[in-house]
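Same chain as my last thread, 390 residues:
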Amino acid sequence: MTNIVKPDLRPARPDFSSGPCAKRPGYSLQSLENAVLGRSHRSKPGKAKLAEAIDKTRALLGVPDNYRIGIVPASDTGAYEMAMWTMLGARGLDILGWESFGKGWITDALKQLKLDDIRVMEADYGELPDLSAVDFARDVAFTWNGTTSGVRVPNGDWISDQRGGLTLCDATSAAFAMDLPWDKLDVTTYSWQKVLGGEGAHGMIILSPRAVERLESYTPSWPLPKIFRLTKSGALIEGIFKGETINTPSMLALEDYLDALNWADSLGGMKGLLARVADNNKALNDWVAATDWVANLCVDEANQSTTSVCLKIVDEDVQDMQADTQAALAKRIAALLDAEGVAYDIGAYRDAPAGLRIWAGATVDAADLAALTPWLDWAFTTAKMEAQNA
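reply #2:
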């Protein structure tokens, strides 16, 4: 059993939340001093800033020139529901869910859109559905990385190059942290507050030419609110993809996103971001491999998330406890670390199995994760002793 004495070294930045995520290293509000405030977002400088965000996004992610990129309302949720409401229904749908948000999209498809031809493919937390069973003659909706389960698709090899339908990919905790094969993705969405640690409320939607063709050739049978409308008189509203947003964006949040993009660029772009994510995962995975009380919720290493690392408690004594006691123990670990100021917001997602969830995206420093691991041992030892003595 690990010594109960508190470790000496503390993480310099204890921000390990899975969203909103840690700000970049060295972040300061002074970085936002060039924000276009008190001006219309439709003014010349306002539109220039919005267009700059789109251009920098394209360059960093390597999005093809013939794909459209738009800034839309309501974070990743708004972006993904915009895609569902405007494009689904033209073909049958295969929809995949293996964690909370993916299963939320299933609820949308079944109970809100009430699609007639739908195949639901689900898996328990920690696992993936059978990807080989997906029919790409149909539309396919899925999350690239399951933020609440710590499970991701390993790559894009399972997606057909000869697909007839569209692929709708929720990539909110994957964009800027994992390689996304653009030729496999027709609709891709994410939010600013994830991997780059931006501010909330704004979403990004990236459309392939095939997705644009669907928008211009298909009109859904249900009404569309203004914030979902991407076409007018059957034609794509091109302005949306040049910075002419549907509704008023926060120019302060926009400046924050630009700051994050500039930081990513200073690292060498995706290569630098991926290197930081790899270093972070090594710090956590080396500790997990050497620790007998904890394991990754996802057993298959190829499918383990590199951003939202979800851990389960496998200590034999804890496994013998009642389920509610196990859940309380996991929450106690998170609470102890929060009280010590060494880790904030690392409890498992409310719908997920009891455990811990630690963000290891690019804005986190590997040194802070390494400093956190002895504290995790301390908190587990403390919480277990409390539970046994209760």
